[in-house]
Amino acid sequence: MARLVKCTEKGPYKLEAGGEAYYICRCGLSKEQPFCDGSHKKTRDEEDGKLYIYDEKGRVEIVI
Asked: Which InterPro entries does the UniProt record give (predicted)?
C-alpha cells in the first residue's frame, strides 16, 4: 500500500553514542533507514511550502 509522508527537514540528525557518531535520516529518502545515506542532497534546492514526490526517475513537483 502506498503512503504519503511529508518530511520538512533537509539534513540528517547527528547522534553520538559510545564515542561513535551516527547520522539519522530526516528527509525520508535514505535507502539505509533509519540511517542517512546522503540522499538528502537531492532536497537542497527544494522551495519551502512546495510538495515534491521522489521516485526512481527523480523529483516531481506536485501542484495543488
From this structure: FeS-contain_CDGSH-typ (IPR018967), MitoNEET_CISD (IPR042216)
* Three-state DSSP string of 1-64: CCCCCCCCCCCCEEEEECCEEEEECCCCCCCCCCECCCHHHHHCCCCCCCEEEEECCEEEEECC
Q: What is the pLDDT along the chain (64 residues), one digit of tens a residue?
A: 777 788 889 999 999 999 999 999 999 999 999 999 999 999 999 998 899 988 888 898 887 7
Query: Which pTM was predicted?
Result: 0.79
